[in-house]
Amino acid sequence: MKSGHPAHTTCGEDLSPGDRIELCSYTISTDDIVKFACQWDPLFFHVDEERATTEGYFGGLIASGVQTLAIYQRLTVDSFVQHWDVIGGAGISDLQFRKPVRPGDILTGSTVVKNIELQPDRGRARVDCFGELINQHAEPVLVLTMSAYVRMRST
Fold first, then answer.
1. How many Cβ atoms are within 10 Å of 138's Cβ, its own excluded?
2. What is the 3-state secondary structure (H, E, C) of 4-50?
């Protein structure tokens, strides 16, 4: 196990249920949606703007849910996780895609610490967070609970 923590690193003991972290933002483009979908989720409503408009349920191109989840992850890392002494992810639950993400949407959101289970015998804490990603109209596009293991300072 790693010992010693930089002074600016957030460890398990530093977090409390109810802590709220606002995320930075990301504007998604048509090119972002199509490039991601071509590689990872090549359904027509992610890759073919004309067909998505004429045949798609949502009346136009939309981002893959997997891409929306990846954007949420990136925003959490950029906003706060890079400062946590993370060991690794523990899981995702209650993942819901609430609204389609469209080209030009500006995505942001928040994460709230729900629960912390200190595991001093293992030198870690399990941190459960509720996350929400919203668009520029403050409409939720994604909600989830993510859990991660974070090192404890006192080991």
1. 7
2. CCCCCCECHHHCCCCCEEECCCEECCHHHHHHHHHHHCCCHHHHCHH
Buried b (16+ CB within 10 A) or exposed e, 9-44: bbbbebbeeebeeebeebebeeebbbebbeeebeee
At 94-140, the pLDDT tens digits run 999 999 999 999 999 999 999 999 999 999 999 999 999 999 999 99
- Rounded to whole angstroms, how far apart are CA atoms 50 and 38? 15
Residue labelled with tokens 């989840």: 69
Which pTM does this prediction carry?
Answer: 0.91
- Give the sign of the dihedral formed by CA 135, CA 138, CA 142, CA 144: positive
Q: How far apart are CA 14 and CA 35, in angstroms?
A: 39
Distances (CA, A) of 119 to 93, 150, 155: 21, 10, 10
Query: Helices 65-79 and 30-40, interaxial angle, to 10°?
Result: 110
Dist CA 104 CA 82 (whole Å)? 27
